[in-house]
Amino acid sequence: MPRRFLTTSIWRTGAEKTSLLEFLFKIELFEVGLSSFDRSKDLIKSLLLTEPDRRPTIREVMNNHWVAQHNDVPNTPLGTSMFFTTKAWDQFREMFRESLQTKRKEHSNVPTLMTLDASKNPLLIKRKINQKSNPENNSHKVL
């Protein structure tokens, strides 16, 4: 599979999931200031260090200015349980079904697999030969 196709496919899947989540939970993306960005970048770099002894502890992470400034969580009720019983859930399921439908292949484009007898796989041929010459010592069985 070409790398370009894989990247596009993964990006598209992520974009579709993001749009579904925005629809469901009315998520608003927020802007982060440049000073906050630098602090977060420094924290993330320190968390990604390969040597565990050099990484910050959980206390250090929680005391980091960038993390500490986001500790205030608004007291908003979570509407997840109500959401799953509403009309929005039906709309979400339909959108998700349509999204999956676009990923399905047409039957004319699906490759047909070769039977094992018609296969020219060198490893399979070697196993068949070994099985014929030593049937009692062989733990593998060729299908």
TrEMBL record:
Entries under InterPro entries matching the protein: Kinase-like_dom_sf (IPR011009), MAPKAPK_C (IPR027442)
Catalytic activity entry: L-threonyl-[protein] + ATP = O-phospho-L-threonyl-[protein] + ADP + H(+); L-seryl-[protein] + ATP = O-phospho-L-seryl-[protein] + ADP + H(+)
Record bears the keyword ATP-binding: yes
EC code: 2.7.11.1
Enzyme class, first EC level, given as a word: transferase
Top-level lineage group: Eukaryota
Annotated keywords: ATP-binding, Kinase, Nucleotide-binding, Phosphoprotein, Serine/threonine-protein kinase, Transferase
GO molecular function, one term: ATP binding
Signal peptide: none
Protein family according to the UniProt entry: Belongs to the protein kinase superfamily. CAMK Ser/Thr protein kinase family.
Protein name: non-specific serine/threonine protein kinase
Lineage of the species this protein comes from: Eukaryota, Metazoa, Spiralia, Lophotrochozoa, Platyhelminthes
